[in-house]
Amino acid sequence: MIETHELTKMYGEMYALDRLNLTLNQGDVYGFIGPNGAGKTTTMRILATLLNPSWGEATVGGYSIYTGAKDIRRIVGYMPDFFGVYDDMKVIEYLEFFASAYRIKGAERSKICAQVLELVDLTYKRDALVTSLSRGMTQRLGLARTLLHNPQVLLLDEPASGLDPRARIEMRGLLKELRSMGKTILVSSHILPELADICNKIGIIEQGKLFVNGEVNEVMKQVRAEIVLNVSVADRTVEAASLLESQPEVEKLDEKNNVLVLKLRPGVTRYSTLADLLIREGFELTLFKEDEINLETAFMQLTKGITS
Known about the structure:
10 helices, 6-stranded mixed beta sheet, alpha/beta, Rossmann fold, 308 residues, 14 strands
């Protein structure tokens, strides 16, 4: 649905976007991660046909950004990180105004506005003034506006920016629902945990360059320097610790709140034999789990915090 080839944007001698190569297939949810100023918004504005690149090519739904701007705008919903609202309008009036801009008329317009309000859980606010909405509600209203023409592709620029914890959870749930509807979504964020359980692919961009790009699990493997196991037994913790510490796979063992934390030696990727050993020696396992590396850890290990 989205392809870019050597996509570049320069301001003078500065690269805002440096030879971006990106591919999103139908149904992909792509987490676009990077510090502020890394090139995320520039990319989205180019894909939304609101900004011309210096050179390179991009297609959305098979349409070129150079020759198919009108076609792209029919299939894309773009939600910028900051967008204006008309404070003196009611919520339903606001949506109907933008629905009319999409040339949705009459009964169909009323039906669609009601549907998107229900999707973003703002039906109970339909007659409230936009100015009375909280930040989280305003973000959801902006997303509702983006969905009015039922776009196949969503470009969401920091949709959780500035939201409180509850509003971020609600936004994450909404993105999951859109994913289940089969939308192709490019979502940017620097609030990394928001993307961990939403995206199937991620890209990390810094200084305009996309230097990590792939499936979430593959990216995690790139930054995993070591495997750490958390092990707990029903009793005889000291004996279990002594047994595990003597095994050649284990480099270091610590105990934290009756949980044995094992750091495995470099190169060790299989460790089921440790569980087998404990069971064979009569220990009752209550926990045997590998530490998970999250997107935030991956981001910190892979980036330097440089902007373009």
